[in-house]
Structure formats: structure tokens, C-alpha cells
Amino acid sequence: AQRVTQPEKLLSVFKGAPVELKCNYSYSGSPELFWYVQYSRQRLQLLLRHISRESIKGFTADLNKGETSFHLKKPFAQEEDSAMYYCALSGMGGGGNKLTFGTGTQLKVEL
Amino acid sequence: EAQVTQNPRYLITVTGKKLTVTCSQNMNHEYMSWYRQDPGLGLRQIYYSMNVEVTDKGDVPEGYKVSRKEKRNFPLILESPSPNQTSLYFCASRQTPGLAGGNEQFFGPGTRLTVL
């Protein structure tokens, strides 16, 4: 079975402070990990994926297979980063490459 | 514009009154899914479809039905809605997993359903 855990429901930081949204996963094979973001009253959209090794809107995430983690980081939080963030794992589930989401972390950036 | 659309966006109904939420995508994607989003529970998959006439249960299928008669459409049917189905519903689609870009999932705007 594949599982994604986001231990924090809410993370509140001040503008300019570093941000780290935690994500741990459980999967026996080689997973693909993603971060999706949902801004207020908008649809979910892909933020980044581990295979791309890219930085989007200043966010990065490194897959750590030893710790089974895929934490999302940004050195300096901006007010517009306030949103709901979901970590997701794609693995070979019964549905063929099932995408499993964590419960999400609400990021609030305060001035 | 490549997109996933859902209708209606908002719906208030009463217990037992059958309803259908439509979903359509114009990206020629094989794989489509329905999710419900609830506070503290994140997104949970209700049903998915790997192609036309191929559907299967997700994690929380009870009380829901789907059909996939055409590649672009994947309606969600609630035969007898109950208050515990009050939620925010998202349809999503993606290319066949394994192909380039196959794992990026595109979401619809959501349908907020209230069952009284």
C-alpha cells in the first residue's frame, strides 16, 4: 500500500522567514513525488515534481529515499505563498500508477 | 485552452434526490478520476477510469457511480445523496501514466455539493 503523510495541518510563518512543509511517504517501489498547491477558491495545480528537480516560485523539494521524505522548502516566504499544499505520490497501485494525496498543509504567511 | 470543466460549480440538494455532476476534458487524456476534498482528510479518490468503458473503485466509492462512454466525459452520479456526501468534489485527468508528462494531473475547478 502507498501512503503519504503530511504531519502539519497548519503552518504559520512571517513574511521573509524560511518555510518547510513536511511530507513523508510509504511505498515499496520507486515512487514519483509531487507537490500540488491550491490557492484560495481555486483548483489544485501542480507545483513541482521530483523528477524535474526544478525550482518553481522559489520552492524546491528533494526526494530523500533514505528518510522517505519529500519536504517542500522556500528560503523566504511571501504573502502570495499562502495556500493549501498537498504532497502526492504516484505508484503502481491497483489503478495503474495510482496518485495518492496527503491530507494537506495550510500555509499562512503573515506580514 | 486545455482544461477540465465541471458542472455545476455549486449545488444544494435534498437527501435522496438523484444528481449528476458532469466532467469534461479536452486534452484527449485516457485517465480520469473523481476526488472529494474534506477538511482534515485531504483528497480522497472516489472512482477512476483508465479509458472508455473501463472504470474502477477508488478509496471511497460507496454511494457513488460513474460512467465513461466517451473519452472526454466522466460524470459522477449520486443515486440517493445523503448529508455525509456534502463535500467539495474535483474531477481530474491525465495522460496515460508512463508516457512523458503522464503523471501530471489536471484538475477541474471543483463542485461544492451540499446535501440537506
User: For the report, how would you describe the main beta sheet of chain A?
Assistant: 6 strands, mixed
- Radius of gyration computed on alpha carbons of chain B: 14 Å
Approximate helicity band of chain B: under 10%
The quaternary organization reads as: heterodimer
Give a description of the structure.
The complex is a heterodimer of chains A (111) and B (116). Chain A has 111 residues and is mainly beta. Chain A contains no helices and eleven strands. In chain A, the strands form three sheets. In chain A, strands 2, 5, 6, 9, 10 and 11 form a six-stranded mixed β-sheet that branches. In chain A, strands 3-8-7 form a three-stranded antiparallel β-sheet, with no helix packed on it. Chain A is globular and about 40 Å long. Chain B is built from no helices and eleven strands. The radius of gyration of chain B is 14 Å and the shape is globular. At the A-B interface, strand 5, strand 6, strand 9 and strand 10 of A face strand 4 and strand 5 of B.
Task: List its salient traits.
heterodimer; A: 111 residues; mainly beta; 6-stranded mixed beta sheet; 3-stranded antiparallel beta sheet; 0% helix; globular; B: 116 residues; 7-stranded mixed beta sheet; 4-stranded antiparallel beta sheet; 49% strand
Topology of helices and strands:
The complex is a heterodimer of chains A (111) and B (116).
Chain A: E1 3-5, E2 10-14, E3 19-21, E4 24-26, E5 32-38, E6 45-49, E7 60-61, E8 72-74, E9 83-91, E10 98-101, E11 105-110
Parallel strand pairs in A: 2-11
Antiparallel strand pairs in A: 1-4, 3-8, 5-6, 5-9, 7-8, 9-10, 9-11
Chain B: E1 4-7, E2 10-13, E3 19-25, E4 31-38, E5 42-51, E6 54-57, E7 65-66, E8 76-78, E9 87-94, E10 106-107, E11 111-115
Parallel strand pairs in B: 2-11
Antiparallel strand pairs in B: 1-3, 3-8, 4-5, 4-9, 5-6, 7-8, 9-10, 9-11
